[in-house]
Design goal:
Family: Belongs to the oxygen-dependent FAD-linked oxidoreductase family.
Low-confidence stretches: 1-22
Catalytic activity: L-gulono-1,4-lactone + O2 = L-ascorbate + H2O2 + H(+)
Distance between the termini: 24 Å
Mean pLDDT: 94
CATH class of the largest domain: Alpha Beta
Number of domains: 3
Radius of gyration: 23 Å
Bound molecules: flavin-adenine dinucleotide, 2-acetamido-2-deoxy-beta-D-glucopyranose
Pathway: Cofactor biosynthesis; L-ascorbate biosynthesis
Pfam families: ALO, FAD_binding_4, GULLO2-like_3rd
Structural class: alpha+beta
Strand content: 15-25%
Domain FAD-binding PCMH-type: 51-235
Strand order of the largest sheet: 19-13-15-14-22-23-21-24
Number of helices: 14
CATH topology of the largest domain: Vanillyl-alcohol Oxidase, Chain A, domain 3
Length: 586
């Protein structure tokens, strides 16, 4: 008990201490080869160190092109040899197995050195970048020219090729919406080609081309995006205030809040019955303020503290300590809120709301990427080389018309099991962001709210988690009852069941794929499965439901030896969830 108190103290302390920590170790390259001189027989992972099925992905060779010409020759050689190809990025953040090709002999094309900003054009207000450029570079370079992307993901470490391939977004219903791909003016993609064309082809597309809506969100199956031109606007200022309210009217408020504030989002703490509304709007350029957003969970964090936090969570899980989780969650979230999540009025101190500042200093962050090589004192909290966060992420968007009822359903579950979602609050609750219908074939189909739910994942794939049933019911309810679209770059396997049928223009996308890459060299079992071309999105085996590899249909898919059995959902009775059944009634 005392140990727990101490650990909880540590947790609060850590939130304060990380403000002053500067030295950290950068995330490692996700591609690992036997030696630095030999780019053969390599492995590739995601930034969390584990795919949903925990397999290792092998590749025959890795190549690190620096120019479009080098991409072309790599693709040409592989196409000629009939080899599978995939693109890896600097950090490889996608959770699903998107970076893996089949078998051990594929060619991995890394965009690590395809990292140059080519042009910022003040007159046309555009920026042209190579495919491996990070969001942080885009923001910085645009700002130097007095320009900005209006809406972006919140994390600097994504690359333009990777974030567009998975439809990544920030939060807004205004303008063209919050998905980056909807700001693409021109996309250059290198694809395989037939022998007479030299086995590789450069395709430069803009809105006048019929394929443009296919190449905006590609899942990586059309070829290598070497260059993107994005539409910018003049740099502007924003004013941000976080307002805490109880969540009794959240179901109604969420639907209209996105129309009230240009950069609105909501952080929901369902077990605490609280919602934190981000009141965030443009203000005139002459409004005073030089605020900065340095989101605390994306800062370099002391490895020792990450380890202590993880140990606490593990002990709470093993001991089914729901109260412990709930009090840890309250401490964590109130510390974050007190620290304004990492907002400061002047880059140093947070003194009051609103925080006013330039867009480029507020739109996105990720200082844990800054680093000294080999200093393991601090790291990004999920970096697999230290003991730290390890989680599942269930992320989906529900059309605005379904949002009210979905939130009410989640609230019904919380009424039945009040402590059930404290575990997600440890990861700062459910992040709700606005996304707008997109013309991209694999983009959002309607205006929607994207719900981002992060929760404990055991290092042991056969170990169930607390309130497993509630989390699984929410996941299945969203995907099947509300027809939610899974984020292509996140989620567990089951979220992709039937996903492609939710896209009206899926067939058009597949037609383009057949033209660009008729032999499917950029496709894999996984991309074929999520595109509905092959069975087997889910994997049925012992304990499969615990990792979201399947929906349970029998007890062995859960953990009967640990008291978890396959049962129907409580609010969504079609759900099949792993529920802890104790002899005592509760
Ligand atoms: C801390 C953190 C915060 C995040 N925040 C957000 C957020 O705010 N909003 C959001 O929507 N998502 C967010 N994500 C998820 C993220 O958007 C996706 O996982 C995204 O795909 C990752 O981009 P990446 O550059 O790491 O690409 P990867 O995961 O490496 O690649 C994704 C796919 O794109 C393909 N690909 C990559 N580059 C190219 C290219 N040049 N040409 C062709 N194919 C390519 C890859 O082969 C792969 O199939 C976050 C993830 C993390 C870890
Ligand atoms: C790759 O590994 C295999 C054994 O797994 C070995 O036989 C082969 O020589 C290696 N190839 C290269 C190019 O390193
Ligand atoms: C690619 O790797 C294979 C082994 O996996 C090796 O035999 C082959 O020579 C490599 N090709 C190149 C171009 O390095
Ligand atoms: C679109 O691409 C075509 C070439 O395919 C080019 O002629 C045209 O100028 C481009 N349009 C814009 C708006 O960039
Ligand atoms: C929630 O807040 C509203 C005012 O915003 C108040 O009327 C209501 O009673 C509160 N509900 C609970 C359960 O505290
Ligand atoms: C900002 O500029 C506008 C005119 O462009 C002026 O009316 C306003 O008073 C200015 N505000 C401040 C705070 O200086």
């Amino acid at each position: 008990m005392l140990a727990r108190r101490v650990r909880i103290r540590i947790r609060t302390l850590h939130l304060l201490m990380i403000c002053i920590v500067v030295s950290s170790s950068p995330p490692e390259d996700p591609v690992k080869c036997p030696s630095s001189t030999n780019n053969n027989n390599c492995t590739v992972r995601n930034s969390y160190g584990a795919f949903p099925d925990r397999s290792t992905c092998r590749v025959g060779n890795v190549t690190f092109p620096r120019s479009e010409e080098e991409v072309m020759s790599a693709i040409a050689a592989a196409t000629k040899a009939g080899r599978k190809m995939k693109v890896a990025t600097r950090y490889s953040h996608s959770i699903p197995k998107m970076v893996c090709s089949d078998g051990d002999y594929g060619l991995l094309i890394s965009t690590k050195y395809l990292n140059r900003v080519l042009k910022v054009d003040a007159a046309s207000m555009t920026i042209s970048v190579q495919g491996g450029v990070t969001l942080r570079q885009i923001i910085d370079e645009a700002a130097k020219a007095g320009l900005a992307l209006p809406y972006t993901p919140y994390w600097w470490g994504l690359t333009v090729g990777g974030l567009m391939a998975t439809g990544a977004h920030g939060s807004s219903l205004w303008g063209r919406g919050s998905s980056i791909h909807d700001y693409a003016e021109e996309i250059t993609i290198v694809t395989p080609a037939a022998a007479p064309y030299g086995y590789a082809m450069v395709r430069k597309l803009n809105w006048t081309h019929s394929d443009f809506n296919a190449v905006k969100v590609t899942l990586g199956v059309l070829g290598v995006v070497t260059q993107v031109t994005l539409k910018l606007e003049p740099l502007f200022k924003r004013s941000i205030t976080y307002a805490v309210r109880n969540d009794s009217d959240l179901a109604d408020e969420a639907v209209v809040f996105g129309n009230k504030h240009e950069f609105a989002d909501i952080t929901w703490y369902p077990s605490q019955h609280k919602a934190v509304y981000r009141l965030d709007d443009r203000v005139p350029l002459n409004t005073s303020g030089n605020g900065l957003y340095n989101f605390i969970p994306f800062r370099a964090t002391l490895s020792l503290l990450l380890g202590a936090i993880r140990s606490t969570e593990e002990i709470q899980e093993v001991g089914n300590d729901a109260d412990g989780k709930c009090s840890s969650a309250k401490l964590t979230t109130s510390a974050l809120l007190t620290a304004a999540y990492g907002l400061t009025n002047d880059g140093v101190l947070f003194t009051r709301y609103p925080v006013i500042g330039y867009q480029n200093r507020l739109q996105s962050s990720g200082t844990c990427l800054d680093s000294l090589q080999d200093a393991w004192i601090t790291a990004c909290p999920w970096d697999p080389k230290v003991k730290g966060e390890f989680f599942h992420q269930t992320t989906f968007s529900i059309g605005l018309s379904g949002v009210k009822s979905f939130i009410q359903d989640v609230q019904k579950l919380v009424d039945m099991e009040p402590r059930s979602l404290c575990g997600t609050e440890l990861y700062n609750g459910i992040l709700m962001r606005y996304v707008k219908a997109s013309p991209a074939y694999l983009g959002k189909q309607e205006d929607a709210i994207d719900f981002d739910i992060t929760y404990y994942r055991s290092k042991d794939p056969l170990s169930p988690r607390m309130y497993e049933d509630i989390l699984e019911e929410i996941e299945q309810m969203a995907i099947f009852k509300y027809g939610a679209l899974p984020h292509w770059g996140k989620n567990r396997n089951l979220a992709f069941i039937g996903a492609i049928r939710k896209y009206r223009k899926a067939a058009e996308f597949l037609k383009v794929k057949d033209v660009y890459d008729p032999s499917g060299l950029f496709s894999s079992d996984w991309t074929d499965q999520i595109l509905g071309l092959r069975q087997g999105v889910t994997i049925t085996k012992e304990g499969c439901a615990l990792e979201g590899l399947c929906i349970c249909s029998q007890d062995t898919h859960c953990a009967p030896n640990k008291g978890y059995f396959c049962r129907p959902g409580r609010v969504f009775s079609d759900a099949r969830v792993c529920k802890r059944v104790t002899s005592k009634k509760h």
